[in-house]
Amino acid sequence: MTRDLSTLSITEAGKLLRSKECSVLELWDACRNKAIEKNKELNAYLEIFKADTEAIERAQERILREQEKAPALCGIPIAIKDNILISGHVASAGSKILENYVAPYDATVIKKLKEAGALFLGRTNMDEFAMGSSTENSAFGAVKNPHDITRVPGGSSGGSATATAASMCLASLGTDTGGSIRQPAAYCGLVGLKPTYGRVSRYGAIAMGSSLDQIGPLTKTVADSKLLYEAIRGEDEMDATSVPESLYAHGAPKESMVIGVPRALLIEGVEPDVLSTFEETLSRLVENGHKVVDVELPTSKYALPAYYVLMPAEVSTNLSRYDGMRYGLAKRGETLLDDYVLSRTEGFGEEAKRRILLGTFVLSAGYIDAYYRKADAARDVLRAEYAEAFKVCDVVAFPTTTSPAFTFGSKNDAVAMYAEDIFTVTANLTGMPAISIPMKTVVRDGIELPTGIHFTAPHGAEETLFFIGAKVTGEILG
Amino acid sequence: MEVTEEVERLAKMARIHIPKENLEKMALEFDSVVAYIRQLDELTLTKEGGPKLPKLHNVFRSSERVNPPGTWTKSLTNLFPKKDGDSLSVKKILSHD
Predict the structure, then answer these.
(1) pLDDT digits (tens, 9 = 90+) for A410-465
(2) Which chain A residues are within 8 Å of B52, Cβ to Cβ?
(3) Checking CA distances to B10, which of A231, A276, B66, B92 falls within 20 to 30 Å?
(4) By CA distance, what is B36's nearest residue in A?
(5) How far is residue B35 from each of residues A174, A358, B29, B39, measured CA to CA in Å?
(6) What is the ipTM of this complex?
(7) Which CATH number is correct for A1-478, 4.10.320.10, 3.90.1300.10, 3.90.1150.180, 3.90.1150.10?
């Protein structure tokens, strides 16, 4: 075996494991060694796990015994974002306040992956509590983009994206509250899927914005994204917001897709070469028998301000549980109030504090109608506008981001950083599934940098996203 | 310094201390984000139909014990910063003085 096993996709590795061209242990070692070798420079992992020899042996035996019937993820080394609980391992959510928090149970997605025989390489770095678009907000140092280490990998799932793109694992899980899977996928040249809200259980995911958060895969190919999504999806009695399969019924994707493009939203702000790469990708799809139409989504221009009302409101509520009493960082002062204030002040980073204050503000008497309730009402309007658009198209397309990955420290004011989510937040506000697929690269400072095309589909239509995604990458899905 | 006072008031409610030397910077950032979200003032929404309920809503688990007593006790009490047996120790907040 001359090929570096860590560079394989899940699909390729599965074939080699079944044909006995490599063993589960060889695959694990190749990924783990690569992770150790590159982590000093890239800081993608907060912790690289030791080999679970029993799990590796079990996976190997299962593949030998069940061959093609063994789950596709059996024996596959995967990286997990640090806000998804793996029993017995630290889950810090990139925060000092949870630095020593050991997960007492498995998240439902982890339970499902364990049942499928997947192996966990480690927990990946992230913006604190998933608040950020660059992974510069981690309490444990920024993550670097493997395509250019002077640039960010995106965020908040930047550790998962870098680990996958740098072959420090075969695939990873991230979470997406406003674009935290899709934006780093675009910046690192990966496929990133935010599933329909409720299609994947959030049980065991450390909450940021509970009406927005979803767990999803970051992968090298569309086929891998589909495999990982299939493995983690499903209604869960432990998550009352998870939905039954029957809630959103769709037929098989159409062979010829109609792609809606909201041109009015692309007039300003997108860098010219990213826009031309987007247009070129659309042209290729048209050449291959698909159709592009204009769609109107006028309220989308208010999606980002609405998101920056709703998300901090949920952040301030969710993060009120961290008080230094039952778990996490515990600082002690003279009074019980001192204990709360000291623990929270020392435990939270600047961005977490900023969003807690903003959330406290928008939920205050006197402002709740002007901001929170209005933003919540805007969600209904956005859903209605998308529903109208989906009467004339199968998917809506944008570039995932306005530019390729930016350099460290270049977005040092909060609003400029928040604008990173401009095309991605709407799918979280509406609950619709969305995917970022690699397009051609653009050049900055003499280095080729990845870009992504973003597709949104109606609730429950992930198959449509995989179908159109595979048309962009040229994959043939099984 | 109205914004600075507002930030101080919010921080107090959120049980966070912002040191004096950081307060002005935090207030400036806070002000710029609030100015940004004020774009929502331009959005006119009709009251037609009112809030829409999602297809699936108010799903509750039945209130029944799903784990035998003690299943999680050790793993949860191990996380307590300070404990007395299986009990969480916190500061006394009531006094007879």
Answers:
(1) 998 888 888 889 999 999 999 999 999 999 999 999 999 999 999 999 999 999 99
(2) 380, 383
(3) B92
(4) A305
(5) 31, 12, 10, 7
(6) 0.92
(7) 3.90.1300.10
